[in-house]
Amino acid sequence: xxxxxxxxxxxxxxxxxxxxxxxxxxxxxxxxxxxxxxxxxxxxxxxxxxxxxxxxxxxxxxxxxxxxxxxxxxxxxxxxxxxxxxxxxxxxxxxxxxxxxxxxxxxxxxxxxxxxxxxxxxxxxxxxxxxxxxxxxxxxxxxxxxxxxxxxxxxxxxxxxxxxxxxxxxxxxxxxxxxxxxxxxxxxxxxxxxxxxxxxxxxxxxxxxxxxxxxxxxxxxxxxxxxxxxxxxxxxxxxxxxxxxxxxxxxxxxxxxxxxxxxxxxxxxxxxxxxxxxxxxxxxxxx
Length: 287
Ligand SMILES: Nc1ncnc2c1ncn2[C@@H]1O[C@H](COP(=O)(O)OP(=O)(O)OP(=O)(O)O)[C@@H](O)[C@H]1O
Known about the structure:
InterPro entries: AAA+_ATPase, ABC_transporter-like_ATP-bd, ABC_transporter-like_CS, P-loop_NTPase, PstB-like. The chain is an alpha/beta fold. It contains eleven helices and ten strands.
């Protein structure tokens, strides 16, 4: 399904409060944020291949700025492949190639002139397993800014504090910034990874199953953090957890076997899916 910025106003105003017997928790107070809504990433007939295998098939979609978009679907349906294409992480896989176009802010992500380092500065990523560098907490956060030429100590100190505050970690680590980040708990390490991504002032945050390795308390903290960041960043989150998708996102994309089957406001997709396949998936008829 094609969701475009033009159809956005229409779709958010669609009826989304149909009664549902499905056991999906959808906060009643979820409001659409202000100031967002432009097409931040645009996919046009965009396919991703591993060798001859088309893992993601001719996706047409606008990802709207400053909203949270969840990507759901059964294992192997292409969620991570699609997410990783947005900041060209798939380039690291030699057999991986694409067709069609994927645009970020009007520029072709796969264009000849695209600077991948700059692209990844603007489009940060957090992975399933927390992956702090074996360095101090300070140096983890300062790594990206230093890479982009910021070496002034006072500026770095400010960036580190600001990023850790945004990631809701400052209060827990402000007295041990010089300690090794690997000494933090898994949940703290994941928030550190969010802080590290935020330190270079990205526009988009890609979260690939960011809570699947975390306990429920740390998961709740990451979900709270997504809520805090909502409206300031365009956020895309791959998740296997439909409750989580319904809690944290404004829009949801449902993929099946590489095809974007349905893309709609989250509430609508979970309460009134248009496609039978979506209905079957969200009601647990297959997983
Ligand atoms: N490096 C790779 N080389 C070859 N095929 C791959 C590679 N990575 C993924 N695939 C294949 O591409 C398809 C999509 O995989 P992908 O990891 O994107 O799915 P997913 O929906 O994220 O799955 P999961 O929920 O299990 O993480 C699968 O068939 C997978 O086997």
